[in-house]
Amino acid sequence: MFAPHFVQRCIESKCGHTFELERPIYTCSVCNGLLDITWTDTPKQDLNVLRSIWWSRKTSMDLRDQSGVWRFREVLPFDQNVDVVSLQEGNTPLYDAPKSASYCEIDALRLKHQGTNPTGSFKDTGMTVAVTQACVLGARLVACASTGNTAASLAAYAARADLPCAILVPTGQVSHAKLAQALDYGARVLEIEGNFDSCMRLIRELSEDGSLYLVNSINPFRIEGQKTVAFELVEQMQWEVPDHLVMPGGNLGNSSAFGKGFRELFALGLIQKMPRISVVQAVGASPFAKFFLSHDPTDPQFTDEPHPTTLASAIKIGAPVSWKKAWRAVEETRGAVLTVTEQEIADAKAVIGRDGIGCEPASATTVAGIRKLRAQQFIKPNEQVVAVLTGNVLKDTDYVIGYHNKSLSSDTEGFISGSFTNTPIQVTGGRDELRAVLSSLSKK
Ligand code: F0G
What we know:
alpha/beta; binds ligand F0G; single chain; 4-stranded parallel β-sheet; globular; 6-stranded mixed β-sheet
């Protein structure tokens, strides 16, 4: 089932233990370190042939070719003939966003919109691989903890694979849209008192006896799927690499995956430089940013945040499982980790909307962060910048309506004042009033 030259390897340099791909483990059984899936031998491929195979698959009717993940299957740890569980994920657009660029005071900004995936978030690119692996291993139950998007994604892929699926979510902290998706796809949703971190701890503990297959991003197969987005992005940029790549950080799987994707592109010789990878967190849920700013380089210790808080519920996370991999990505590429306020997230989200694009609150941390990084001169106005939008605008409409109706408020910042609000206009005076309103709206 597996390509012969891949293994699971502990990322700890002092350990580096390897495990066969058939082992359903999530961390190193020797030192408890995180696992990477790595090549035992860097594949020697003709790069132009590889590029043209990947490109030509875009016009093929084969299910694997129609997936933006499996289209790059030469870099995935499976036999070429594996039965994939796919919803034609990936192949997401890279938009030009001129209004967002001018808000950030840079010449141009591109938005890689992973919210156009089948279940509306980037999770699908990892889930297609993790659920395929669950089937290869003969799993009888797949499970995850989630702030909502992993839940929706796993529920859909488990339904496609006809696998029973259990999801742990923190009671009352998941948007209605995400919960609705998970329910509709038939997952059993288990609501737990506490926050995402407590759900994550519980499900990790319960997965230890092998009775369920865990597909959170601690599972290295998830990261394998998500890394292909780096391949897709540079292909869209005609094999050019942006100077900066900026993404939100929660459990830190996505930044780990982009780091791995770009590392592999570089190792294969498909790109000649790395982008600087920066991660943005909401100020109330920012253990990674705190670590980045104050860790001791000789003895890096990560401190969890016991009570994370943010209206961007997708990234309300205080104990990110993949911080070490994400740190490696940021460090290797000389990126930054920073925080943005609730007000900055909300305004940036509305600005992205004005570009006709839209995203969920967590995704908007990127544009808010780029604006800050520009102000700090970390980003120069003429550099090539790509922001990763992780979720669809329809994922959290309560937030959107709250912002535009000026009723959005946070525990830490109170009412969000809203510089870009767009409140519905009540027209009660009939046709004449309506005509006057419409005429006031015309382009001058
Ligand atoms: N953006 C969105 C829309 C998310 O749903 C998440 C994470 C992130 C960003 C952060 O990505 O965890 O890889 O750093 N959502 C997870 C979930 C935790 O359960 O849906 P990360």
